[in-house]
């Protein structure tokens, strides 16, 4: 794979927004090629004064989808941004495209030249979005825990998704809360360019969807956007050329802080965006999810399942996500319930052993997937080694033997307790944290 477009820079020729239909169009130029993305929000109920500036930030975030096609050595921002938003822009490209740079062996992307135009004139009036929170739903255990915490806490969330498929819709349907959906459409020529050999790879898509959500909230008089990103999302997969490479960068705490700063500096929005679950480990979230059986028939975190048109097969049972979620839920659900959720018992399939070795840190690095920390996987293994439903499962027995033989041993009581303290740094407001703590 490589560049099939001769472009010295990514440029921003302009954007449009129709306030009657709620359709936004963002144009990006790579040499002579101009590509257009469309985001259909639907007709707005209100037009918040900060909306235009949030669309400025979305214009920049969505550009990462188009930058990667040619990976030029410069980005020429065509949108004036507040100076306080520029650290977010630099992090978006330098860190958000870290995995893309690593996989395509493009080290210059880590220090990509970003040329801003003059800072935006004027300081926006500060405001804090009021109204019911807009909470993003991805179909997995994390967003389900947030949905339930907000609902039980009397915060009346509005559920949200970008391009929701049948899986996400089925999860939303379990909840009585109202739903808002937005349609994001990439320029259709991107498929042709990728087929012709253009660069491809991971982008900070959570940053894009987060800003779509903030704009949606402003169009309907809603409150803050609530995400469901956990503490382990901030942990990198590996180090390359002295830089941390994190598949989940746009879900991590540094990215959350950068985006909050950009929203405040450029749009005047305070506490407009945060992750409710930031203080929790994956295992803590799994334990909370286990309290709610009503989602068992619809929940999924498998990326392979999301590529289907329907929700018939919710778990492929063979990818890093399936392996990790099965591992994380097993100590809290018991065998019968978990096999019912997945449709298979992964711990009886020794062909999965190599994948579990990666999760345990026995080989290679943590997979480029949305999975928990190595330490969390080891704590889960310790709990399974003591669980009557799981301790004799072939995968569990083999992993316990290998971890013990490696010299590290299984985690002690202190490490287990630490996984459930829920005291990792968080930017969520106290009112929302109280709702989360009420789940137990």
Structure characterization notes:
This protein is of the alpha/beta class. It folds into two domains: 10-275, 3-Layer(aba) Sandwich (Rossmann fold); 282-418, no CATH class. The chain contains 18 helices and twelve strands. It has helices spanning 51-62, 64-70, 86-94, 98-104, 141-152, 166-174, 189-195, 205-219, 253-267, 282-289, 303-306, 320-333, 335-342, 353-359, 374-385, 394-405, 413-418, 430-437, and strands spanning 10-18, 23-30, 33-40, 74-76, 113-115, 134-136, 158-162, 179-185, 225-227, 238-240, 243-245, 273-275. A ten-stranded mixed sheet has the order 5-4-1-2-3-8-7-6-9-12, with helices on both faces. A hairpin with a 2-residue loop joins strand 2 and strand 3. The chain is globular and about 65 Å long. The chain starts with 9 loop residues before the first strand and ends with a helix.
Provide a compact summary of the structure:
The protein is of the alpha/beta class and 440 residues long. The chain has helices at residues 51-62, 64-70, 86-94, 98-104, 141-152, 166-174, 189-195, 205-219, 253-267, 282-289, 303-306, 320-333, 335-342, 353-359, 374-385, 394-405, 413-418, 430-437; strands spanning 10-18, 23-30, 33-40, 74-76, 113-115, 134-136, 158-162, 179-185, 225-227, 238-240, 243-245, 273-275.
């Amino acid at each position: 794979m490589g560049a099939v477009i001769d472009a010295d820079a990514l440029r921003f020729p302009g954007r449009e927004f129709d306030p009657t239909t709620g359709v936004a169009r963002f144009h990006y130029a790579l040499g002579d090629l101009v590509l257009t993305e469309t985001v259909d929000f639907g007709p707005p109920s209100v037009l918040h004064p900060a909306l235009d500036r949030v669309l400025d930030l979305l214009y920049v975030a969505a550009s990462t989808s188009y930058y990667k096609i040619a990976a030029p050595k410069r980005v020429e921002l065509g949108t004036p941004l507040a100076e306080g938003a520029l650290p977010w822009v630099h992090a978006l490209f330098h860190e958000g495209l870290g995995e893309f740079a690593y996989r395509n062996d493009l080290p210059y992307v880590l220090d990509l030249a970003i040329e801003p135009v003059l800072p935006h004139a004027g300081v926006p009036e500060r405001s804090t979005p009021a109204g019911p929170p807009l909470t993003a739903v991805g179909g997995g255990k994390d967003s389900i825990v947030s949905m339930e915490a907000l609902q039980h806490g009397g915060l009346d969330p509005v559920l949200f998704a970008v391009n929701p498929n049948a899986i996400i819709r089925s999860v939303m349907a379990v909840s009585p809360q109202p739903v808002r959906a937005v349609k994001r459409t990439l320029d259709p020529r991107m498929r042709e360019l990728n087929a012709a050999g253009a660069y491809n790879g991971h982008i900070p898509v959570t940053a894009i969807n987060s800003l779509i959500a903030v704009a949606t909230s402003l169009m309907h008089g809603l409150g803050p956007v609530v995400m469901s990103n956990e503490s382990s999302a901030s942990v990198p997969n590996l180090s390359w050329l002295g830089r941390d490479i994190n598949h989940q960068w746009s879900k991590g705490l540094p990215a959350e802080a950068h985006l909050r700063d950009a929203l405040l500096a450029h749009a005047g929005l305070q506490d407009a965006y945060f992750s409710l679950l930031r203080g929790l480990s994956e295992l803590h979230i799994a334990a909370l999810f286990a309290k709610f059986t009503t989602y068992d028939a619809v929940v999924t975190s498998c990326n392979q399942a999301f590529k289907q048109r329907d929700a018939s097969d919710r778990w492929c049972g063979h990818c890093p996500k399936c392996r990790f979620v099965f591992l994380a839920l097993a100590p809290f659900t018991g065998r019968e319930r978990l096999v019912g959720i997945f449709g298979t018992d992964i711990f009886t399939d020794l062909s999965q052993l190599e994948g579990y070795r990666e999760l345990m840190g026995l080989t290679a690095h943590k997979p480029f997937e949305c999975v928990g920390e190595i330490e969390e996987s080891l704590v889960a293994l310790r709990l399974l080694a003591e669980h009557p439903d799981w301790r004799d499962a072939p995968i569990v027995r083999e992993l316990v033997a290998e971890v013990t033989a490696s010299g590290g041993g299984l985690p002690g009581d202190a490490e287990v307790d630490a996984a459930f303290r829920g005291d990792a740094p968080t930017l969520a407001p106290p009112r929302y944290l109280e709702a989360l703590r009420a789940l137990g």
